[in-house]
Design brief:
By secondary structure, this protein is an alpha+beta fold. The chain has helices at about 100-110, 115-180; strands at about 1-5, 10-15, 20-30, 40-45, 50-55, 60-65, 70-80, 85-95. It has a domain at about 1-105: Sandwich (Jelly Rolls). The strands form two sheets. It has a four-stranded antiparallel β-sheet with strand order 1-8-3-6, with no helix packed on it. Keywords: Membrane, Signal, Transmembrane, Transmembrane helix.
């Protein structure tokens, strides 16, 4: 993707990743001038672990394997200069199957095009299987939360009905005794 960035302003991108998922990123200033530089930082959720930090660069790459599930954040700052010109940035972030460099794999192992396509499809199928397993696990967790919430609400409904009937009974008893006291009833 390509976007514009003011010097001194940060632009952040988040990607939700699972355990042991490979990621690759590439960034650069389009047509950089000599004094135009960036600062790029890639961290895990909440900034607990830093995976990449590059200061005062015009281009660069990062790659890592996620050792925890969650959101990963890539922030890009345009370094402040005396020239307040807007920077045009090329940014690419690939995860999972897309992060592998398939043409290099094909050259290294000297396999034909069809075998490469089969390997790509196999990796894609494994990625889909992992994603489905993850979604099934999340669905089970959400069903458990839903069941606990429903049980709590049912208990709350019965307690509120009980309190309402007790208050109504007390009001009727109070009105009856009031009317008897004033000899209206």
């Amino acid at each position: 993707m390509r976007f514009d960035l003011q010097p001194g302003v940060a632009r952040c991108f988040a990607e939700n990743m699972k355990n042991y998922l490979m990621t690759f990123g590439n960034y650069s200033i389009v047509n950089p001038k000599e004094n135009q530089t960036l600062t790029v930082r890639v961290t895990s959720q909440g900034g607990t672990a830093s995976h990449h930090l590059a200061e005062h660069v015009q281009s660069g790459q990062f790659s890592f394997v996620a050792h925890e599930s969650g959101d990963f954040l890539a922030c890009i700052w345009g370094d402040e200069t005396h020239d307040p010109q807007v920077l045009s940035i090329d940014f690419e972030w690939k995860t999972g199957v897309n992060a592998k460099d398939w043409p290099k794999i094909a050259k290294k192992s000297n396999i034909d095009r069809m075998a490469l396509e089969v390997q790509i499809l196999h990796e894609t199928a494994l990625s889909i299987k992992d994603e489905m397993s993850y979604l099934l696990q999340r669905n089970t967790e959400m069903l458990e939360v839903n069941w606990r919430t429903d049980s709590g609400m049912l208990l709350f409904i019965f307690v509120s009905f009980f309190v309402t009937f007790i208050v109504a009974g007390l009001q009727l008893w109070n009105l009856k005794s009031f009317f008897k006291k004033n000899k209206i009833l």
